[in-house]
Design brief:
Length: 494
């Protein structure tokens, strides 16, 4: 296929996928299933895609971008308290799920022990792409959302190593490491990757904060560049690149970055492109004619054991120590969505030419399709039944800043969203520091210079000029009033 044809087909697929995402939202269907279906249709009609090695490489690249987007849009204040529980789910919880599914696959489905372990390792991790795209549409308490999202961000790291090891065993290679050494290696790579992510994120924040770039559009590119570099450096150092990219993105997304809102928006757009490309490609790699009723039954049976036995058991054993209510535990169990990650992991033995890899890929594909259709659309309903839904989305003020080159000052742009308690507050009542001033207000696309008694309204954009030293105080004050109203005290929002 020539380049111009590829570009034409790619643009058409992208636009069709965007329309499909909108249609899926209106019909209550998960977008990723529609993207998979589009890929299957393209593979059957337009182009027969069979390169498992390319699918594996592109799948990992897409997952890097998706994890980066998830990290950029994760608030540290929300996940800080959820990290111990999320890390336990991402390690011990995944191990419990693998053991249960592998035991079922071996003793009930009749798979050999290596293939059974491979099936358990492939299907056990929750999928960041599915979680980030579906879960954020459900109004949940911040702690509950943070546990699920952080788990999906971290559990890819141990799974990559486990799937690679199981694949080597199926080929008759490796096996020198014992279980204890394997566990130690997983923990080392996970913690090492997270530490590397902290370092790179810290350096990235200070680099972007201290350098005035010639164009605002370069800041989002630089932010994403730091995150992708973390993955590459982590993999090169034999650490968890996935943990590194996620932690780096979290640090960058919560740092004092110029044009932070634009960076998050750019990361979200890149994440959508990665999701669309990933699921369409995996759909093209699938061969529906190869799916037999036996394979579908095995996939559904393994999925049922994972969803209704292994996942609840792992959640209970991991979260019982944190005194999390049973209703929230039940929702976490049901919200353990599987999507692209199991299918990507299934390409590892397929690309390596492991025995039975094609059948395993088909089994995993059937499992993902069936249980994504079952779980994703029902998440809002389950949240209401279990009474864990807040019933409304959290509202926070959107604040961006850009450094001014010639003077030590920052220009801040503040958007007042629906539901913010900044509405009805006068400029005087903001009580900004002495060297900070609201220089301009944009209301319904009309700019004007405000007086001290000018009232702030929902939808307004405030342009604030402040000196470099007071910028954090201004931001903290605005967030405080947005949440607590005009009488809010000075608080540190972190």
């Amino acid at each position: 296929m020539e380049l111009d044809q590829v570009l034409l087909l790619g643009s058409v697929v992208l636009l069709v996928a965007i329309v499909a995402a909108r249609l899926g939202t209106r019909l209550g269907l998960p977008s990723l299933i529609l993207f998979l279906g589009l890929g299957v249709l393209l593979g059957a009609i337009v182009y027969d895609f069979e390169d498992a090695n390319l699918a594996h490489a592109l799948g990992f690249a897409a997952l890097v971008l998706i994890l980066g987007e998830g990290g950029f849009n994760t608030r540290w204040s929300e996940i800080r308290g959820a990290l111990p529980a999320a890390l336990l789910l991402a390690t011990v919880g995944v191990g419990i799920s693998i053991a249960v599914v592998a035991g079922f696959a071996h003793f009930v489905l009749g798979l050999d022990s290596t293939t059974a372990i491979l099936l358990g390792a492939i299907t056990s991790p929750t999928d960041a792409a599915a979680v980030f795209s579906v879960l954020r549409k459900v109004p949940l308490p911040s702690r509950l959302r943070a546990i699920i999202e952080a788990e999906s961000g971290f559990n890819d790291a141990p799974i990559v190593l486990l799937v690679a090891t199981a694949t080597e065993l199926s080929l008759g290679r490796g096996g020198e490491e014992g279980p204890l050494l394997m566990v130690g290696l997983i923990l080392f790579e996970l913690l090492g990757g997270a530490l590397l992510g902290l370092i790179i994120g810290w350096v990235g924040v200070r680099a972007l904060r201290g350098i005035a770039l010639p164009a605002s559009g370069l800041y989002p590119l630089a932010g994403l560049g730091w995150a992708v570099m973390a993955y590459g450096l982590g993999s090169w150092l034999h650490l968890s690149g996935f943990a590194a990219v996620y932690v780096t993105a979290v640090v960058l997304g919560n740092g004092e970055l110029p044009h932070k809102h634009a960076t998050r928006s750019f990361a979200e757009g890149v994440g959508w492109i990665a999701q669309i490309g990933l699921f369409v490609m995996l759909g093209m790699l699938a061969e529906p004619q190869r799916e037999s009723w036996t394979t579908i039954f095995a996939g559904v049976a393994a999925g049922a054991v994972l969803t209704f036995v292994a996942r609840p058991l792992s959640v209970f054993l991991c979260l019982v120590w944190f005194r999390i209510p049973w209703r929230e535990q039940a929702f976490i169990s049901w919200a353990g969505l599987r999507g692209a990650v199991p299918i990507i992991m299934a390409t590892v033995p397929l690309a390596a030419g492991a025995p039975g890899a094609a059948g395993l890929f088909d089994l995993v594909f059937a499992f993902v399709v069936v249980f994504t259709l079952l779980q994703a659309p029902t998440l809002p309903w389950v949240a209401r039944i279990l009474k864990v839904s807040t019933g409304e989305d959290a509202t926070d003020v959107s604040i961006e800043f850009a450094p001014l080159d010639t003077i030590k000052a920052d220009m801040m742009q503040v958007h007042v969203p629906e539901g913010s308690r900044l509405h009805g507050v006068t400029i005087r009542e903001l009580r900004l520091p002495r060297n900070s001033v609201v220089s301009l207000v944009v209301r319904e696309n009309e700019p004007f210079t405000p007086t001290p008694d000018q009232i702030v309204r929902t939808g307004d954009d405030l342009l604030i000029v402040t000196n470099d030293a007071d910028r954090h105080l201004v931001e903290s004050r605005l967030r405080s009033i947005s949440q607590g109203g005009r009488l809010a005290r000075w608080v540190n929002e972190g």
